[in-house]
Structures are given as C-alpha cells and as structure tokens.
Amino acid sequence: MFEYANDTSGWGDWQFEYRFGAFYIFPPTGIIKPVDALRQTYDPKSASICQAHISLSEPLQNPLLDEQVQEIRAALCIIQPFDIQYGPLRSFPPHPGVCYSITPEDKFRALRAALHSTSAFAGVPLRHEHIAPHMTIAEFISVERTDELLQELSDKVPEGTFHCGSIEYAVPNERFYFGEGFHHSAKSLNHNSPTPAEQGAAASRLQPALWSQAPVAPASGGG
User: Looking at the whole model, is its pTM more than 0.85?
Assistant: First the structure.
C-alpha cells in the first residue's frame, strides 16, 4: 500500500528511525508557504527535508499495514476536528531551535493518544510524549543563534489559526525528503504519482470518517 525507501546508503544514523514514516499535521497552503519561507531562510537544512509541519506521532518501527490504517481510522472517529493556534514563537532550552507554539495542547494530546493506542504503535517507546506540540522554523542552529532569532523574529512573523480535520502519514524517500505521494481520504484511496518537486517521496493523507469532510489543502512544493 505504501512505498518505502530501498537505497538508504546515503542516510545518516539518526535518519533510519524514520524509515517507516510517522504521522504529522501539515498546515493548509495559505499558511504553510510563509512558514516554509522562514524555514528556507533560517534553516535550509530542515527545509530540504520536509515542509512546515507539526509532528504528531512517534516514528513507526514497521511498515504500515492496510488493516492498521482501518484501525487508526476507527480510533480517530471519536476525535472531533479542532482549530489550531500557531504562535507565539518559543524555544526548548537547553536545546537549540526556534518554533511556533501550538495550542490547544489538550486536544492535540488527545489526538496523539488515540493514534498511539493502535497496534501500529505497539511496543514503540513514547520518547517524545513529554514534548509540547510545536511547528519548527529553525532546528539545526546553535544555542546562540536561537537567542538571536527569538529576538529578531518575535512579533514579526505571521501567527494565526487553521482548522485541523486530517493528518498525514509521511514517509521519506531515498534522499530523505518527506512529501506527498498518496492521498487517502475517508471515502477513497487515490494513488497519485509524485511531482518532481516532491522528489518521489511517499506519503498519505489520512482523513478519519467523522472528521471534517472538507479536505485540508495538501502540502505543495518541496522543502
């Protein structure tokens, strides 16, 4: 059902944890583009791996099976769509990096808990459970640069809200780029060929049946 990278000879050690992908929330086009621009400016390395996103789940340790997709959809049926507020900016001392705060945290954690309750995550250590939800602008920077960027960008970057009614299962390609290659809605499964900008990456949009039927605009472009 899903495609996974075969040639991983160019990957670094830390990247293998993500071979079978994870679940993410991608903002709609009107929001993701300016955040992508910030990522490209202040952390091109992060931008070259994935578009702006909110990490939702732990990385999977095995390929995602058809029956697990159905199980996930059933588990998420109890979760109502909600609006996400992004901003203001924050950091996670003592670690470097600048990101958007994401709220409401309780609804995000309920969504994550429902996802992690399924068999796809059986035995997977919840190493990121304690980390507050966030959307990263710059990650591969120094602690000193973190402080500089917080002062430079605070109150000068867009903030706002967007509706969360779907989540993405995103998988890296052989060049370790996460992009959309498959679309999976509550009513149909359409296998779409990735564009060159998506660099052949495999990913899917999983929209639970009782979430909003109005599709969230897919992430477009690369980086």
Answer: no
